[in-house]
Write a structure and sequence with these properties.
The structure is a single chain. The protein contains 13 helices and ten strands. The strands form three sheets. Strands 1, 2, 3, 4, 5 and 6 form a six-stranded antiparallel beta sheet that branches. Helix 3 packs antiparallel against helix 5, helix 3 runs antiparallel to helix 11 and helix 5 runs antiparallel to helix 10. The chain is globular. The two termini are about 25 Å apart.
Length: about 375
């Protein structure tokens, strides 16, 4: 079922007897039904926040519902036009069905590093979504692992199909003026340093996401130095000595420093490790960060992922590689009959046909 072009409301029933699929500051996501179809229902907690999800609905509506790695909007209740300031009911987004498992839960499900083949398959889906948004001129801005749901249950054919959700922070591509929103551990330097929603901002965040998935020690709270204050971190950040950058960094970290603690300093330390890899004269390298997570006999795999991440995270957006160039590299190490690679869209088939030739093109198409 597709979103009605004339903005008619759809009548979905949420299942409040089950635990919510997810919950954020603004909304709760429930399992539900739309007629005889399973759906997910995202509902605001308070009327005053309806306008936030109306904006989200408009963004999702502009994307359509034709990409397998981006959640589909099936409709809203009430209609978008009826959810204004005088609304008397909480606003709902009716979405394609979602499960309880996101990349955060998957990454924390084992003390060991995640299986490399599964990480490759997930990365292909994430990169496909990134290219889709680039073509649509939309920037998600909150590329955190909790906003990537895995479609299937463990052991199913769709176990490692990632779906991008939560477009609450999203915006269209613009030069400046974007608020600092989303999870700071995965925020691109385009936003962190300048509030610029450039088209490749989410691409850099994909590199940070892969670092998160590949490290045995989860990248986040508890992964910083813990003993240093903000002034120390600020002076060590690339460009942190510049007054403009210093003010931007203060603004970015204000949420964490509202009540300073070892955890908040650790989180700033984790951001520092991400950002430090993005500059040409980086004091920390991707290789350094991955050293403890690959055995000697895994040198080839480490080199592969290091190259992938380094091609995603440069500070300059123009130096970040095209998503399908990176997908091609990952597919070279993925068997053609592996589960988890959803069928290509017509737009993707055209892009592959225009960009690749001969054996490269055949290899890519043979995986889907």
């Amino acid at each position: 079922m597709e979103l009605s072009s004339n903005d008619q409301a759809v009548d979905a029933v949420k299942d409040e007897d089950q635990a919510p699929l997810g919950e954020g500051a603004v909304a709760v996501v429930y399992a539900g039904r739309l007629g005889n179809k399973r759906v997910a229902v995202k509902q605001t907690k308070q009327l005053k926040d309806n306008h936030l999800m109306v904006a989200e609905a408009k963004t999702m509506r502009s994307l359509g519902s034709d990409h397998p790695n981006v959640v589909s909007l099936l409709g809203t209740s009430p209609s978008i036009s009826a959810a204004g300031s005088q609304a008397t009911e909480l606003f709902q987004l009716v979405l394609a069905p979602l499960c309880h498992r996101d990349l955060t839960k998957w990454a924390s499900s084992s003390k060991d590093r995640l299986p490399l083949q599964a990480v490759r398959v997930v990365a292909v889906g994430v990169l496909r979504a990134a290219q889709f948004l680039i073509q649509k001129q939309v920037v998600h801005l909150d590329w955190a692992p909790c906003n990537w749901m895995l479609v299937g249950q463990p052991g199913s054919a769709e176990e490692f199909v990632p779906i991008l959700v939560d477009f609450n922070a999203s915006t269209t591509v613009q030069k400046a003026g974007t608020d600092l929103v989303g999870h700071i551990n995965h925020m691109s330097t385009d936003i962190l340093y300048g509030g610029k929603a450039v088209s490749k901002a989410d691409l850099q965040s994909t590199g940070f996401l892969l670092l998160y998935l590949l490290r045995r020690k989860i990248f986040g709270v508890g992964d910083g130095d813990g003993e240093e204050d903000f002034g120390d971190f600020q002076s060590r950040f690339p460009g942190g000595e510049d007054p403009t950058n210093r003010n931007l960094l203060k603004r970015a970290f204000s949420r964490l420093l509202g009540s300073p603690s070892k955890e908040s300093l650790n989180e700033i330390g984790a951001v520092y490790k991400n950002v430090s890899c993005c500059f040409q004269d980086a004091s920390t390298s991707v290789s350094d960060l991955l050293d403890d997570d690959f055995e000697e006999e895994e040198a080839a795999a480490k080199e592969e992922f290091q190259e992938v991440i380094e091609s995603l995270i440069p500070y300059s957006p123009s130096k970040r590689k095209h998503p399908w160039d990176i997908i091609k590299k990952l597919l070279e190490r993925i068997p053609s009959n592996v589960d988890g690679l959803s069928a290509l869209t017509d737009q993707e088939k055209k892009l592959i046909g225009d960009k690749f030739e001969g054996e490269e093109k055949d290899m890519i198409l043979g995986h889907f």
